[in-house]
Amino acid sequence: MFEMLRVEARKAAEIIGRHDFARIYTHYDADGISSGAIVALSLLRMEKSIQVSFLSGLNEEVEEEELIVFADMGSGYPDVVSSLNSDVIVVDHHFPVGRIEPRRDFAHINPHLAGIDGSFEFSASATAYILAEELGDNRDLTSLALAGIIGDKQKITGGNLEVVRRGIENGFIEERDGLKMISGKVREVLRLSLEPYLDFYSKEEELDEFLAKCRIDGERNIDELSRDEERRLANAIAVRIMRMNSYPGVFEEVAGKKYFLPDELIHNAVMMSDVINATGRKASQSVGFGICMRDGSYLEKGFELWRKFVEEVHQEIERRRHEVQEGECIRFLVMENGSSTGPIASVFSRYLFSDRPFVALNIKKDGRVKVSARSNRKLSELVDLAEVMRVSAEKVGGRGGGHVVAAGANIDVDAVDEFIREVDRLCCTRLGSK
Ligand SMILES: [Mn+2]
């Protein structure tokens, strides 16, 4: 199924072969950091030298080098890529926009260009793994590919499933029946989980009742529950999620399989992904990257950042829940110096307000506004949020793009009202055209 991707991956491998050094630019989320680590480890094993930088997007400056590798970004920024006087390799799964006219050698590895669904079934990390396969025996990196897949909330079907299957066959991924959740004591897992979001964070009593009702000791480790206990817990979680205004597909994504990564520093794949993600969100990507590089000295710091990040997101959700505003066809939230937009918008759009697209705006001290838009698979059949973000941002002099269900933009603070109106108008046009 990867033949067409492989053609570009081989082209990329040839370009890499001609260089001793590569500058790697990658996105600062879990998929980006794991993609960057997959590329970095493959190149280091070929005795190339590398330098890795993390960006929030290609709206940030990049430096020209002899060879640049973009991971989890690039396909949406043809103008930036075309302007570089460098050999360039783009390893991305965002929907390609416009035309890239490279000035020098160029390879573009993107599932959308190879007949594979990159929105739900192929992450940047999976794409990076296809490149890694062309660069040497890197089968162990399937585990990092899985961390990226989970980080982008993709399905383990299609191309992703094929990569995961390779990991399982070679012993780098273990699959068991169970709940795809973080690891730890049951009580802590339920209280802190963001995927699924269970709304127990400051509801200790409710949590006690919940545990008593499913007859589970909250001090037990969730990964060590018996099949029976796990089934009782799964049922109770399903009921709780259903009672929120959640997206119906959400429980299916949690139930079924859990994955372990025996060679990684963090064995539970969801936990691995979440810790990496948190380091990026807390502007400490090098910690997450170090964990991907299997350097144990970063582990403690990684868990510390994770806990801090998760607690902040929960507090922000509880605080902001009542500040959510209604448009005609969207819901939105305007924050000033909020902790982060993406994770909050995800929980709101998947669990609490799943009937409309959700847009979170964060006005930062420098007057720039970071926007995250989220919907779910059902809404995405009508509304392409990547397009909505791109068009609305361009209208107000900003930039936007991303995926059909998860997109973002950067705009100026003066443009907030006009931007929201435009997003709302575009969503109405799309949602009305059933
Ligand atoms: Mn991604």
Helix and strand arrangement:
Layout: H1 3-17, E1 21-27, H2 30-45, E2 49-55, E3 67-71, H3 78-83, E4 87-91, E5 106-109, H4 124-135, H5 142-151, H6 158-169, E6 174-177, H7 186-192, H8 204-213, H9 227-243, H10 250-254, E7 257-260, H11 269-281, H12 285-292, H13 299-320, E8 325-326, E9 331-336, H14 342-352, E10 358-363, E11 368-374, H15 377-380, H16 385-395, E12 399-402, E13 406-412, H17 416-432
Parallel strand pairs: 1-2, 1-3, 3-4, 4-5, 9-10
Antiparallel strand pairs: 6-7, 8-9, 10-11, 11-13, 12-13
Helix pairs in contact: 1-4, 2-4, 2-5, 2-11, 2-12, 4-5, 5-6, 5-11, 11-12, 11-13, 13-14, 16-17
Manganese (II) ion (MN) binds near residues 31, 93 and 123.
* Side-by-side strand order of the widest sheet: 8-9-10-11-13-12
The pLDDT mean sits at 95
CATH fold-level name of the largest domain? inorganic pyrophosphatase (n-terminal core)
Contiguous helical run count: 17
Describe this structure in words.
The protein has 434 residues and is of the alpha/beta class. It folds into three domains: 3-173, Alpha-Beta Complex (inorganic pyrophosphatase (n-terminal core)), CATH 3.90.1640; 183-258, no CATH class; 324-432, Diaminopimelate Epimerase, Chain A, domain 1. It has 17 helices and 13 strands. The protein has a six-stranded mixed β-sheet. A five-stranded parallel β-sheet has the order 2-1-3-4-5. α14 (342-352) links the parallel β9 and β10. α16 packs antiparallel against α17 (416-432). It starts with a helix and ends with a helix. The model has no long low-confidence stretch (mean pLDDT 95). Manganese (II) ion binds at residues 31, 72, 93, 123-124, 152.
